[in-house]
Amino acid sequence: MTKEEVQGATEEEQQAQSKKALKKQQKEAEKAAKKAEKQAKMASEQQSAEEDDFAKDRYGVSAMVQSQQKLGKQCFLVLRQQQFNVQALVAVGDRASKQMVKFAANITKESIVDVEAIVRKVEQKIESCSQQDVELHVERIFVISQAEPRLPLQLEDAVRPDGEGEEEGRATVNQDTRLDNRVIDLRTTTSQAVFRLQSGVCQLFRDTLTKKGFVEIQTPKIISAASEGGANVFTVSYFKTSAFLAQSPQLYKQMCICADFDKVFCVGPVFRAEDSNTHRHLTEFVGLDIEMAFNYHYHEVIDSITDTMVQIFKGLRDNFQTEIQTVNKQFPSEPFKFLEPTLRLEYTEAVAMLREAGVEMGDEDDLSTPNEKLLGRLVKEKYDTDFYVLDKYPLAVRPFYTMPDPSNPKYSNSYDMFMRGEEILSGAQRVHDAQLLTERAIHHQIDLEKIKAYIDSFRYGAPPHGGGGIGLERVCMLYLGLHNVRQTSMFPRDPKRLTP
Amino acid sequence: MTKEEVQGATEEEQQAQSKKALKKQQKEAEKAAKKAEKQAKMASEQQSAEEDDFAKDRYGVSAMVQSQQKLGKQCFLVLRQQQFNVQALVAVGDRASKQMVKFAANITKESIVDVEAIVRKVEQKIESCSQQDVELHVERIFVISQAEPRLPLQLEDAVRPDGEGEEEGRATVNQDTRLDNRVIDLRTTTSQAVFRLQSGVCQLFRDTLTKKGFVEIQTPKIISAASEGGANVFTVSYFKTSAFLAQSPQLYKQMCICADFDKVFCVGPVFRAEDSNTHRHLTEFVGLDIEMAFNYHYHEVIDSITDTMVQIFKGLRDNFQTEIQTVNKQFPSEPFKFLEPTLRLEYTEAVAMLREAGVEMGDEDDLSTPNEKLLGRLVKEKYDTDFYVLDKYPLAVRPFYTMPDPSNPKYSNSYDMFMRGEEILSGAQRVHDAQLLTERAIHHQIDLEKIKAYIDSFRYGAPPHGGGGIGLERVCMLYLGLHNVRQTSMFPRDPKRLTP
Questions:
Q1: I need a surface site. Which of A92, A376, A486, B291 has the fewest CB within 10 A?
Q2: Is A203's CB within 8 Å of B210's CB?
Q3: What is the CATH number of domain B57-145?
C-alpha cells in the first residue's frame, strides 16, 4: 500500500486483513519484529561485522525515530492501493507508542508501507476515501520504500476535475507535467481506472474473436518496403541496409487469409511518421486488427466487426462500472450509447444529412474532421447512438487495394466506424485479384516494382476478404468521453514526445 | 476450400453440408446457377453493355469449358481447409455432365472452390486424407479464385518428413524456399497446426495471468534511449532526431509496478540488432513479458511464472492434441514433460552436475549454449522433466539492475528457465532502490546520464519486484520439438531476411 496523505486499503485488503489476521500476520509480525530489532541494532552498531551483507543499508524497514519530542496522541493517514483508498488511524494505546505515532506522521507521501491493522466500522461516512464505511486501526506499520519528500506533482491535484480547479483556485496538473512524471500520474485513481479498462478492451476484443473462430497472428513490425509509397513511414537502420516500421499489419493479415487461416486478428503497435500534433494522433499506437475471408458479401465482415465492438461495449458496461465511474468523477461524460444491430449508413446518406445541416460538399469529397464530428451529432440526434458504421466511401478517397463497388464505380466496398463522432476504424473489402490490383495500383500511380510481393500474394488462390484496424487508444478515449488520446496511452509518442 | 490435388473438407464442412443442405444451399445453388448462366452469357457476348461493371471479367466463376473432348467418366479431387482434407468425387450422372468432370479435373491446384456435395461413408479408409471415413460426391463446383498453374512449391513436398524425402529420393522443400513463398508454405497442415498452437500459447498465457489478477499493459516500442548502453539496438529516424527500437519492455513494466499496477504483463514485439545467424535467434520476436511486486521473496515471482508456464503446457496438452500430432507427423518428437511443482535448481548445483559430466568451468562463468543443452539432458535423465528453473546466477553475468543475493555477493536473485535444454526466459528481482541502482550502474561503467530517467523512477516509492521475458517463438519451437525458430515465426526477421 502507498501512503497517500496524513489525516486515513481496498476491499481486498480488508478481506485479507480479517482472514489472514490471526495466522499469517502473527508470523509476519514476529518476522518483522525481529527484522526491526536487527535493524535498530545495526543502526546503533554502525557496522555489524558478523553480517556479510553489502546491501544492508539499502533495504528493510527504516529504523524508528527515537527522539522524545512531544506530539499528539494520534494521527490519521490515507492508504491507497490502485483505485481504492482507506483511512487509517495510529493512536497511542496498547499497540502504539507516542514515538510510533510520530514515526507514522513523518512518513513521506507516496512511500510504500506494510500495515497490520484492525478493520473497524465508522459512525460517519469518510467522504474523502473510496472505502467510506470503515477505517484501519493500525497496530504495526513498516516503511517498505521511502519516497523522496518533494514530489514532482501532488496526486490530489492530478485527480481534480478541471472545472473545480478553476473555480476554487486550486491547482490542477497540466498534461506535460503529468506525462513527464508518468510513474506518479499513473497512480491516480483516474489513470488506474483508464488502464484497467484498456486491458479489458483488449481482452474483450480477443475473447469475442476467439469465440468466433478467429486465430491470433503475430506480424512483423520491421518491413522491407513501405506498401503505400513511403509517405509517413519511419526508417530503421537494419545492419548494412535500411528498413521501415509497419504502418499497419494489413499486408500480413491479408497474406494469412491467402494462407487459408480464414479469420485472423492481431493486437500490436503500429507506427505513423505523421507530423500531426492533434488530440487524436499518436506516432505509435496499438492496433486491434481484423481480417477475414467471406462467402458472399463484405457486409459479413462489417457484421463481424460491429458485433465485436458491441461485445466490447457490453463487457465494459457490465464489468467495468467501477472504472467508468472513477473516470467520470474527474472527467464527467454521458454513458456510451449503442444499438443492436449497429446502425449502418451509406456515405450518400451522410452527405445528404450534412447538406441538410448547411454543409457544402461534393459527392466524392472526403469528410473533414469537423464534418465527422457534426455528422456524429446529427446521427446521435436522429438515431440515439454513439456508434455507427459509414459504408460505401467514394473510391477516390480510399487506398488502391480497396474493392470498387460493383454497382457504382464512383464508390467502393469500404467503411469507417465512429464513436462519439470520431473515427476509430477504417476498413474495406480488399481487391483479391492480382490483375485488378495491378490496374488499381497503376491508377494510383504506385510503383509496381515496390508492391510486387504484395500483388504476387494473390496469384495462387485468394478468397474474397475484408477487414479493418481499430485504434485501441481512441476506443478507450471515446468510450470514456475523454478529450485527448494521450490520456489513454500509457507512454504516448507524438512528434514532440519520446519520453519517458 | 482449396483444391489440393486431382484424385480426392473438414468436420465443420461436413456438418455444415448436412445441416444447411436443404435450406441454404438450395438458395445458394439457385443464386450460383443464375450467376453461372449470366457469366456464360457474358462470355459469349464479350461485352454486356447493359451491365455497367468495369470489373466483371475479374471476379465470379470461370466459364465452363465447353469443348467436347473425350474424358473419363469421373475424377477425384482432394479438397483442403486449414488442417484438414477430404476426397471428393465428380462422376458423370444425374448431377454432373462429362464437361463438368473435365472442368473439375482441369482446375489448377490451390485454386479456391465452392463445392456442394453429398457426404458419403466409404468402405475403405482413405489413408491420404485427414477425413478418412467419408468422401464428397460433388453436385456443384465453382472456382472462386484460380491459382496460377505453376506453383513455387508443392504442398505435398512441403509436408514430407525430412527422412522420408531422403530415403525415397522424393523432394522436400528447403527453408529459404518455404520462407520466400510463405503464403503457400503456411497452407501446409504442419504450418496451420504450428500457428494455431502459437495462438493458443498467447491465449493461455494471458488467461492464466488475468485470472491471477495481472493487468495487461501496452508499452512503447520507439524509445529515446537505449537503456543498456546502446549495443544491439536498432536506430530509427524520428522526425528531426533519432530514436531506438525497444530491446525489451522491461523499463516500462517496472514503471508500471512503481505506478502501483502491482502485477502486469504484455505481449508484443521486441527488437535485437544482433548479428546472430543461429537456429534460435531472430532480430524481431514476440515477447511474453511479466513483472510483479512481491511481498517477501522473489521466489513468489518465480512461482507465478512457472505456474503460468505449467498452465500453458497443460492447456496445450489438453486442447491442442490435433495440432501437436499434425506437427509430429512431419517432425516427430517426444511428448513434452514437466513437473508440478516445477523443478528449481541453483546455479551451483548445475555447475556441479556439469563438472561431474566432465565440463571444466569456473563458479562464476556463464553457461555456453552447448553446456545449457548438456545440462538439459542431465536434468532430463535425473528428474525426467523438459522444463526447469535455474536460480541464483552469478551476479557478474547479469545486467546491472539485477538484485544481488543478500547472502552471497557473488550471486544474484536471478534466474533463467529452460525447455528441452534451451533458454526461453531470463528474469530477476530488480533493484528497486535508486541508490543501490546507481552504485550497480557505476560498477558496470554505465553512463548515469543515459539512465537517469530509469533510476528516477524508483525515487517516489517502489515496491520490491521482479519478472521476466519469454520468447514466444522459442516456447513454440521447443514445446513441439522443432529445430529452428523460423518454423514458429510467421514472417521471421533475421540479419539476412526482411521479406516477405
A1: A92
A2: yes
A3: 2.40.50.140
